[in-house]
């Protein structure tokens, strides 16, 4: 298998909301992708207990699978100040310090008004306690990787442009054959000093139908995957075995 290149890096500080591009990232062994899915917006009572954090179905939160309109909110999270800023139609909508009750309330009040009938109860900003992230899978959601060649192949089969950001993955790679990443479970990838053990394929859901630019549910990606390949997988999850710093342009190799 030829080597690939790391093209882009992004994290999603608040589950379901827009990505934050990164110039580089420092990964640590046995840790989740840093500052990724640190917060989530609870859509009605979920029973989440920060003293005993456990996996909850994504539908417990505002997520694109059910709430396409949150894609229209462009967000920015400052990790030092903990200020979360949202814009709508290019204009500032609200900002709040998520480390304070006042700041969280400001964001919650705006989202409650914005979501209207899609709010299934009180909307509440939750912060992940130490060692927990609001990923779709606590057992495999450490680092996510997307093969851009697979996205291009899907585009060709569907006859429509497919924005890679629909898949909400941390690392975008290029240089592999389409679909070749789906057979890498159990293998190890090397990016500089970083070693990643591939755990499983990423099963896609209706979130991918939402256009990340227009917030329209305009393309049935899940149906396209099923009709084109006989499955709904696109991307892979991996565990960090050895840590280090990685950046776009780095070579991604399959360990011997």
Give short descriptive properties of this protein.
256 residues, alpha+beta, M1 Pyruvate Kinase, Domain 3, 7-stranded mixed barrel, 3-stranded antiparallel sheet, 3 helices, 15 strands, globular
Helix and strand topology:
Elements: E1 4-11, E2 20-22, E3 25-27, E4 39-43, E5 73-77, E6 83-88, E7 91-97, H1 101-115, E8 123-127, E9 143-147, H2 148-158, E10 171-174, E11 188-191, E12 194-203, H3 221-229, E13 233-242, E14 244-246, E15 251-254
Parallel strand pairs: 9-10
Antiparallel strand pairs: 1-2, 1-10, 1-15, 3-14, 4-8, 5-6, 6-7, 9-13, 11-12, 11-15, 12-13
N- and C-termini, Cα separation:
10 Å
Q: Stretches where pLDDT falls below 50 for ≥5 residues?
A: none
Number of helices: 3
Largest sheet: 7 strands, mixed, barrel
The first-level CATH class name of the largest domain: Mainly Beta
Task: Please trace the helix and strand order, writing H or E for each element.
Answer: EEEEEEEHEEHEEEHEEE
Percentage of residues in DSSP E strands: 25-35%
């Amino acid at each position: 298998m030829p080597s690939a290149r790391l093209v882009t890096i992004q994290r999603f500080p608040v589950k379901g909301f827009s990505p934050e591009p990164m110039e580089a990232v420092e990964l640590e062994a046995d840790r989740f992708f840093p500052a990724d899915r640190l917060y989530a917006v609870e859509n009605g009572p979920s029973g989440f207990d920060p003293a005993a954090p456990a996996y909850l179905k994504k539908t417990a939160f505002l997520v694109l699978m059910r709430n396409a309109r949150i894609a229209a909110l462009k967000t920015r999270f400052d990790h030092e100040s903990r200020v979360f800023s949202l814009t709508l139609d290019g204009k500032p909508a609200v900002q709040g310090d998520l480390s304070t009750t006042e700041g969280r309330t400001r964001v919650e009040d705006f989202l409650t008004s914005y979501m209207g009938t899609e709010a299934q109860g009180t909307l509440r900003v939750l912060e992940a306690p130490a060692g927990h992230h609001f990923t779709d899978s606590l057992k495999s959601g450490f680092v996510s990787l997307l093969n851009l060649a697979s996205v291009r192949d899907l585009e060709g089969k569907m006859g429509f442009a497919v924005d890679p950001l629909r898949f909400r993955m941390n690392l975008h790679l290029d240089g592999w054959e389409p679909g070749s990443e789906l057979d890498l479970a159990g293998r190890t990838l090397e990016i500089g000093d970083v070693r990643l053990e591939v755990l499983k394929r990423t099963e896609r859901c209706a979130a991918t139908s939402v256009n990340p630019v227009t917030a329209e549910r305009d393309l049935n990606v899940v149906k396209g995957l099923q009709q084109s390949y006989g499955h709904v997988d696109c991307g892979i999850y991996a565990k960090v075995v050895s840590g280090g710093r990685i950046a776009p342009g780095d070579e991604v190799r399959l360990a011997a």
